[in-house]
Amino acid sequence: MVFIPKPRHKVLYGQLQNDLGEVFLALARHKESRIEVGHLMVDHVHTLISIPPKYAVSGVAGYIKGKGAIHIAHSGDRGQ
Prior knowledge:
The chain is an alpha+beta fold and 80 residues long. It is 46% helix and 19% strand.
């Protein structure tokens, strides 16, 4: 899956990049999923996620993307 922030500004760098990786791992665990491989670029994220059959791929992707976006927005509010 590829996640791209709406404005596609180069916001996924520095400390936010380190924090976001941990956030994505925790969010995947909430849905009993596992991020096999992930690459955070400056303006998008590439991930390979193992998702159990009981969850819809779109549901897990939406959950991780939505909660990740909230984390990015809150980090931007603090000036990071």
